[in-house]
Amino acid sequence: MKAKVNMHMIRLLMILLGLGLVHTLPGQSEKLYRAQILLKSKTPANIDQAVFTIDSVIHHPSTNKDFTAWSTRAAIYYEIYKRNDKFKLNSWLRDTVISSVHVSNSLKPDSSTSVYNNTLLTSLAKGYYNISVKLLQDSLDHDRSYIAYQRYKAMYKDLVPNFDFKSQDILYYLFTSTVYNDKYAKDSSVKSLEVSKYAYRKVLDLEPENRNANMGLGLLHYNEAVVLSKQLEFGADLDQIEAVQDNMVKLAKESEHYILVVYNKDKNDSKAVEALYYIYRMLLDKPKHEDFKKKCSDLGIIVNEEKASGG
Asked: What distance in Å separates the CA atoms of residue 101 and residue 22, rounded to the nearest whole number?
């Protein structure tokens, strides 16, 4: 009977060796195999238990150079990370997965293990991108969102060195600008304004004629002028009024510059036509105001013909 049991263990170890799952001494091989079985169960309690088992394996002198052990450790901690820290900007669980993968890769793993390791890193990189979006959408936290986005790019670039982030950057910055543009419409805060402007300009650095960025930045400048006029206190002295009006003209001119980029590409762009109508009204440019009033009418755009603020 004892001989049969020993033969069974030998066959099991031979199978594991053939699968590339075991490169250790028998005692530690059994622990590694147990950790893999616990991981495969997908049961939270079992995976939590697997942590102690796999940490024992990777700290043992006979197995701390086994790439399979380190990759298994990464997989175990990854499961716990998904359960607990998926949307945390800073996570020791994520850090443990990354460091474990790096150790495994440094030990010259076989091709299947190498592919699996890169799959884990890719998933973590994309996780950072998801965090960057969530921090904007749910928390309006641009600073932390930007950190998450830069970590996403850094990790992904390590995996795909020649990856072109241009389209991804444009999407991220347009989303950022939209979120903070909406916030500025509600709170008129300097922080909201500056973040939105910064994001739009990042898009224009990448794609100077981007319609959404030009339109958004143009409307931001116009709305900033409107907010400025509303903040002018009743009974303000002449010097203060003149200073406000000068700033409004400057902002309206900046708005015109960006909106014209859109209009010159498509003379029938209804948003650009309507925006220019209000801009020229603010600038007291009667000929252009009347011209765009007619263009609005031709496009079926209904405009507010009340006197412009500060005009």
From this structure: 17
Radius of gyration of the chain from its Cα atoms, rounded to whole angstroms = 30
Amino acid at 212: N
Render pLDDT for 71-130 as a digit per residue (tens, 0 to 9): 999 999 999 999 999 999 999 999 999 999 999 999 999 999 999 999 999 999 999 999
* Cα torsion angle, 67, 68, 70, 71, sign: positive
User: Residue 78: which of 116, 29, 33 has the closest Cα?
Assistant: 116
3-class state of residue 160 by DSSP:
coil
Q: Look up residue 59 and give its amino acid.
A: H
Report residue 185 as tokens.
């419409």
Distance CA 18, CA 139 (A): 49
- What is the four-CA torsion angle of 71, 38, 127, 122, rounded to 10 degrees? 30
DSSP 90: S
Cα-to-chain-centroid distance, residue 126: 9
From residue 196, give the alpha-carbon distance in Å to each of 133, 150, 160.
15, 18, 30
Cβ pair 311, 282 in contact under 8 A: yes
For the residues 188-193, what does the mean pLDDT come to?
Answer: 90
The pLDDT tens digits of the residues spanning 1-54 come to 444 444 544 444 444 444 444 444 458 889 999 999 999 999 999 999 999 999
DSSP secondary structure string for all residues of 185-244: HHH--HHHHHHHHHHHHHHHHH-TT-HHHHHHHHHHHHHHHHHHHHTSPTT--HHHHHHH
Distance CA 81, CA 51 (A): 12
Q: What does the alpha-carbon distance between residue 267 and residue 28 come to, in Å, rounded to a whole number?
A: 73
At 164, phi and psi to the nearest 5? Answer: -95, 115
Distance of CA 44 to the CA centre of its chain: 29
Give the Cα separation of 307 and 310 in Å (integer). 8
